[in-house]
Design a protein that fits this description.
- Helix content is 84%, strand content 0%.
- The protein is built from five helices and no strands.
- It has one domain.
- α2 packs antiparallel against α3, α2 runs antiparallel to α5 and α3 runs antiparallel to α4.
- The radius of gyration is 17 Å and the shape is globular.
- The N and C termini lie far apart (34 Å).
- It has 142 residues and is mainly alpha-helical.
- Its main location: membrane.
- Belongs to the GtrA family.
- It is a multi-pass membrane protein.
Length: 142
């Protein structure tokens, strides 16, 4: 157990993955809560509810990924807006994947919304990690 704790403290990549999984999980919670409130409480349709949940989760994800996962420190507004624009671009790509999966699972395969949303979010968390790690927060600015 001591070796595991020591490894966690020393291994930056492992810390990054754990932080991403934690904040990815929290982003999924934001997504789920927003989606099901919109669907159940307000009675909005699937597309509007999913879009609203996407907006809230992207805003939450940008803040947490930038600060605590990839520890990106931009030194200029240009760098900040470059990251922000890339982040939103790739989140729009993942939103297309999200919406496509939801429509496929719910409308075509008659899957229950909860299970469709859960499976879709797993796919999205993996895709978004790849996008963030390799295309968005690619340099550590000091």
């Amino acid at each position: 157990m001591k070796q595991l704790i020591k490894r966690l403290k020393e291994d930056q990549k492992l810390q990054e993955i754990i932080a991403y999984l934690f904040f990815g999980g929290m982003t999924t919670v934001v997504n789920f809560i927003t989606f099901f409130l919109a669907r159940r409480l307000f009675g909005w349709n699937l597309v509007i509810s999913n879009t609203l949940s996407w907006i809230f989760s992207v805003l939450f994800a940008f803040a947490t990924n930038k600060r605590w996962v990839f520890k990106s420190q931009t030194t200029s507004m240009r760098q900040f807006f470059s990251e922000l624009s890339k982040f939103f671009f790739y989140r729009i790509v993942s939103f297309g994947i999200d919406m496509g999966c939801m429509l496929l699972f719910v409308d075509s395969l008659n899957m229950k919304e909860f299970w469709a949303k859960l499976i879709t979010q797993i796919i999205i968390v993996v895709a978004n990690y790849v996008f963030s790690k390799f295309f968005i927060f690619t340099q550590k600015n000091t």
